[in-house]
Write a structure and sequence with these properties.
3 helices; Alpha-Beta Plaits; 4 strands; alpha+beta
């Protein structure tokens, strides 16, 4: 399904919710830090108002989620990391999912 020589791209929506931030301003700074970790991954991504969608191979995105959780643990005591994958055997891309709206 997710392995072998012909690995399909997936998309993954990631929502980071800091729970014990000092105030709203601090929450936004934490979200900015999370987005920076995603940017540094080198994977294609699209920031939305409530979540960021990432495109890549399943294992690449899992590694990103691990890095993201590890980094955010350094900044806030408690958080929710909501992760949702869209998989199709033929592959899925951000562009195909949003082309109608661009």
């Amino acid at each position: 399904m997710f392995g072998g020589d012909n690995v399909a791209k997936v998309t993954c929506s990631i929502r980071f919710l800091p729970l014990l931030a000092k105030d709203a301003s601090h929450s936004y700074k934490l979200v900015d830090t999370a987005i920076e970790v995603i940017r540094e991954s080198g994977l294609k991504y699209l920031v939305g108002p409530s979540e960021t969608t990432v495109e890549g191979e399943f294992d690449e995105i899992l590694e990103l989620v691990r890095r993201l959780a590890g980094e955010m643990e350094n900044h806030v005591e408690r958080f929710i990391l909501d992760v949702s994958f869209d998989y199709a055997r033929s592959g899925v891309s951000i562009d195909e999912k949003t082309a109608l709206y661009r």
